[in-house]
Specification:
The protein is 41% helix and 16% strand. By secondary structure, it is an alpha/beta fold. It has one domain: Thiolase/Chalcone synthase (Peroxisomal Thiolase, Chain A, domain 1), CATH 3.40.47.
């Protein structure tokens, strides 16, 4: 909504009317005084009232009603700035789809998409009370802890590699070591499968390694993690010189924005696009619990809309469609461009927004041939917050009545807890698994973020050449 701004030389309506009424009264009183000073009679009470009150009020009223009549007869003016309808947003540029050729994840409820899907379908995904993490009163807090995150042998291996490379000690905290342990496992699994995309002869394409790391890590910690991940990828056959990393100082993009950037670059590159995207994070640490409790955002019995400390890692191996279709033995899911929208700042945490989510789902569904009618499954990063669950379920019941909420709607956030971008990338990995198992489109929703929502449609491979 835009607001009309008066020009510097103009006067607001009420002020202008007040000045005009004062001028009328002044003129009437001045004329009466001038007349009676020259007259031989003294005016009585009635004459005073008529000259000083009734006459000026009558003149002011006549001018006011006359102005109203003229305004009604005047032709309608163009729409004022204050009530102008905001222009419809321009449609996003058409972007090509990408291909997810493989995914991997490490979550508290499974080390693969198949295991996590089984846990969610079995309704066994519930954060447990963690005996090692306590609130201000000394009671255990609910947390989503991953059993594979603690590996002292891994810490020794990576620490020795850092020393051999002459890199300064990045001073990783315990929670950061846990994130690196899980992220390294995902990178190694996907790198072992990336070898299938290497050409039989000729120079291989660049493998773009894109880590999504927590925003509170220092520049040195981010650089060390990225170099370690590249070391792992090169250890599985991809030439180290052909593994590209982003600048450690580059501002982080959301996963949806990152995929859009890859899709935007795909048609402009002479070589195929090959990317390994990995997200890892851990908030399993007493210092994190204490910080969240101090900010009033920790999930407790008295604060059911708070955050549950969690951890995990998830990754996707992506290519452009031509390369994926040229690999005869490659099974993949088509990732259509993301549709995203910002929430209203005033309602980010207060209420569910079915209209916003419904619009995103409808826009994402247009990438398919029949909209949302053929969607067989919805996967979302939704977690413990009630309003986020309500808006997701409300949108599904309105836009996709063919789905059974208990069987076809999977919420990943409850399985991973709060851990940055991990729940959304995990949701994409689970959606890719759903496409391959069900042979039908799957809608992936990101609505856990307080500021932005997004939606991806994932589909089986196209039957015709691109």
């Amino acid at each position: 909504m835009t607001t009309a701004i008066a020009s510097p030389g103009g006067l607001p309506g009420p002020l202008k009317g007040g000045l005009l009424a004062a001028a009328v009264f002044g003129a009437c009183w001045g004329a009466a005084i001038w007349y009676w000073r020259g007259a031989t009679i003294t005016p009585g009470g009635v004459e005073l009232a008529l000259a000083l009150l009734v006459l000026p009020l009558a003149l002011v009223g006549a001018m006011w009603f006359g102005g109203k009549l003229l305004a009604k007869r005047a032709p309608a003016a163009p729409a004022a700035t204050a009530t102008a309808t905001p222009p419809a947003p321009a449609p996003a540029a058409s972007l090509p789809a990408l291909a997810i050729v493989s995914s991997a994840l490490r979550s508290p409820y499974g080390a693969s998409a198949e295991e996590l899907a089984g846990a969610i379908a079995g309704n066994t995904v519930r954060p447990d009370l963690d005996a090692e993490l306590v609130d201000d009163d000394g009671f255990p807090v609910a947390a989503a802890r991953c059993a594979e995150a603690e590996d002292l042998a891994f810490q020794e291996e990576m620490g020795a590699w850092l020393v051999q490379g002459g890199m300064p000690d990045p001073h990783f905290a315990d929670a950061q070591w846990r994130a690196l342990t899980l992220g390294s496992s995902v990178v190694a699994e996907l790198a072992s499968r990336a070898g299938d995309l290497l050409p039989a002869e000729g120079k291989p394409p660049v493998l773009r390694l894109l880590p999504l790391l927590p925003t509170d890590w220092t520049l040195e910690q981010r650089a060390a993690a990225c170099l370690w991940f590249r070391h792992l990828a090169a250890g599985f056959g991809w030439p180290a010189a052909q593994v590209a990393l982003p600048d450690a100082g580059t501002a982080l993009a959301s996963p949806a924005a990152l995929f859009s950037q890859l899709a935007r670059e795909a048609p402009t590159k002479a070589a195929p696009i090959v990317a390994l995207v990995v997200a890892c994070a851990s908030n399993i640490g007493q210092e994190v619990v204490d910080a969240w409790a101090g900010k009033g955002i920790l999930f407790t019995a008295g604060r059911p809309q708070g955050l549950v400390p969690g951890e995990g890692a998830a990754g996707l191996l992506l290519t452009d469609l031509p390369l994926a279709q040229s690999m005869e033995a490659t099974v993949f899911a088509q990732l259509d461009p993301a549709e995203s929208s910002l929430r209203e700042a005033t309602s980010a945490r207060q209420r569910a927004d079915l209209a916003l989510l419904g619009d995103l789902a409808a826009r994402a569904g247009r990438h398919g041939e029949t909209g949302l009618a053929q969607v067989a499954m919805v996967v979302a990063d939704t977690g413990q917050q009630q309003q986020r669950t309500l808006e997701l379920m409300g949108m599904v019941s309105q836009a996709m009545p063919q789905l059974e909420e208990s069987e076809d709607v999977f919420c990943v956030g409850s399985a991973s807890g709060a851990c940055g971008d991990v729940p959304f990338v995990t949701a994409l990995a689970l959606a890719q698994h759903g496409v391959l198992v069900r042979g039908a489109p799957v809608l992936c929703i990101g609505n856990e973020d307080a500021l932005e929502c997004c939606a991806h449609l994932l589909r089986p491979p196209p039957t015709t050449a691109v």
